[in-house]
Amino acid sequence: MSVRHFLSLLDYSQADYRRILARAEALKKAYDAGVRPDTLRQRVLGMIFEKASTRTRLSFEAGIAQLGGTAIFLSPRDTQLGRGEPIEDSARVISRMVDAVMIRAKDHHMVEQFAAYSRVPVINALTDLNHPCQLLADVFAFEQNRGSIQGKRVAWIGDGFNMCHSYINAAQVFDFELMIATPEGYQPDPAVVAAAGDRVHIVRTAHEAASGADLVVTDVWASMGQEDERERRLRDFKTFVIDDGVMAHANSDALFMHCLPAHRGEEVTAEVIDGPQSVVWQEAEARLHTQKALLEFLILGDVSDDVGNPVA
Ligand code: CP
Ligand code: NVA
After folding, report:
1. Which pLDDT band, with edges at 50, 70 and 90, does 1 fall under?
2. Domain with 212 in it
3. Among 143, 164, 271, 304, which one is most buried in terms of CB atoms within 10 A?
4. Exposed, middle or buried, 147 (CB in 10 Å: 0-12/13-18/19+)?
């Protein structure tokens, strides 16, 4: 069988994700009960980070350790990756020594190139194009609270960047309706939008996007690498704040999500992110459970059904 990579949500079918999400639920229950199945014992995950991370690093590193494996953190600063060794050569070498590689890259092309030369699964842990791992967590967290996301209405309000692209992919794969509101000049890539068909609608205002939504989502206004544009972005995005007024347009039981880190008083008010509709901490925790299931799916060729034995 050819190597399974996870570079975009479009890489697998909804049926595959249903297996991964069901396994994530079983792993969460096991974890909550203090049980740690060691389905990835003696497996090693290489983790390449060209950008900062808290949640992604922790969830992958803790996740594989909890399944009996090990992670190795590879920073370009301390490896030859940062000194110009070709990606192809790095991929050929690294993938001979580990069982999977997770990459957070500035340029999506780098992850594709690495995957093309890798003998083992490569996981996209955020690029300038998308952030598929976050969407597994977001769908999981939504469904834990509200049941199937299929046919629901989701509002994306903010930058049409990597997270927005993964929401568009998710609308296609999980079959939900997505309303997107971004400032002029910050719209998502039209090719990504077109691929999702008629499930995705671009509207002008935050209120229009939130209208009748079951889930309201945003992200930072200046992503990693866009720090120089921060002042301009603060001005351009100022009518796209998620506040109580925006949430009032959504359904009364709508949830609020944010991949984090968040800036209270910029893209979201403290009242919303710290309020009763916000599930951001559950969303962050879901990274752990969903990525454990994803690691099994990619490394073992399918998710395991081993839920381990209670610790004596
Ligand atoms: N949401 C997310 O990917 O967070 P980190 O940047 O902390 O990994
Ligand atoms: N859009 C953000 C997401 C961080 C998890 C960024 O790329 O910095």
Report:
1. low
2. 134-284
3. 164
4. exposed
CB 82 within 8 A of CB 135: no
Protein residue with least CA distance to atom 2, ligand 2? 223
Task: Please tell me whether residues 85 and 39 are part of one structural domain.
Answer: yes
pLDDT digits (tens, 9 = 90+) for 159-210: 999 999 999 999 999 999 999 999 999 999 999 999 999 999 999 999 999 9
Query: How close is the Cα of 220 to the center of ligand 2, in Å?
Result: 7
Residues 142 and 93 occupy one common structural domain = no
pLDDT of residue 308: 87
Query: For residue 221, what is the domain's CATH number?
Result: 3.40.50.1370
ipTM given for this complex:
0.99
Q: Domain for residue 24, yes or no?
A: yes
Q: pLDDT tens across 55-71, in order? A: 999 999 999 999 999 99
104 annotated ligand binder: yes
Helices assigned H by DSSP within the chain: 14-32, 55-66, 87-94, 108-116, 132-146, 162-174, 190-195, 206-210, 230-236, 244-249, 270-273, 280-299
CA of 33 to the centre of ligand 2 (A): 32
Same domain, 25 and 154: no
Neighbours of 140 (CB within 10 A): 25
- Is pLDDT above 80 for 236? yes
The response to whether residue 213 sits with its C-beta less than 6 Å from ligand 2 reads no
Q: Is the CB of 223 under 6 A from ligand 2?
A: yes
**Three-state secondary-structure class, residue 178:** strand
